[in-house]
Amino acid sequence: MTVKVNSQRCTGCPGYVEPPCVECCPGDLLLINDQGQSEIRNAAECWDCMACIKACPNGALETQLPFMLAGLGASLRPQLYKDKIRWICKDAQGRIEEFEIPRVIESAER
Fold first, then answer.
1. Which pLDDT score is estimated for 31?
2. pLDDT at 49
3. How far is residue 23's CA from residue 4's CA, in Å, rounded to a whole number?
4. Which of 22, 68, 70, 104 has CB atoms 3.0–4.6 Å from 74's, for a disulfide?
5. Where are the beta strands (DSSP E) in the chain?
């Protein structure tokens, strides 16, 4: 799998010292390119952890699913809400399925 950047949605997060997607990538694989948008340095080194995808405030990143798993053009993208994550899965024919799971947020107070 690899990360795909939607250039229509990516703003490069102006106002941030470092955009959330760049900051949270454990492999240090994302950068902001000359066009001011997120870009992956080396897709082959991506760990598929989806940290960057979940961190993007604009929903500009999605996972391109492998051809053998879901067909050409299939993707997986989360929408984050305070209490849940909605996963949007698009298959090779363009059909969309959505799945919701509760978002586990641990309180700092114990």
1. 93
2. 86
3. 17
4. 70
5. 2-5, 30-32, 38-40, 61-64, 75-80, 84-90, 96-102
What is the set of domains in the chain, with CATH numbers? Answer: 2-102 (3.30.70.20)
Question: Alpha-carbon distance 75 to 52, whole Å?
Answer: 15
d(CA 48, CA 54): 12
Instruction: Determine the Cα–Cα distance for residues 74 and 83; give it in Å rounded to an integer.
Output: 26
Assigned token pair, 39: 């870009």
Strand partners, 39: 31
Q: Which residues of the chain have pLDDT under 50?
A: 107-110
Q: What integer pLDDT is reported at residue 106 of this predicted model?
A: 57
- Is there a contact between 91 and 71 (Cβ–Cβ < 8 Å)? yes
Task: Tell me the C-alpha distance between 16 and 29, whole Å.
Answer: 18
Q: How far is the C-alpha of 2 from the C-alpha of 36, rounded, in Å?
A: 20
- Those residues whose C-beta lies under 8 Å from the C-beta of residue 100, and which sit 6 or more positions away, are 84, 85, 86, 87
Give the model's pLDDT for residue 89: 85
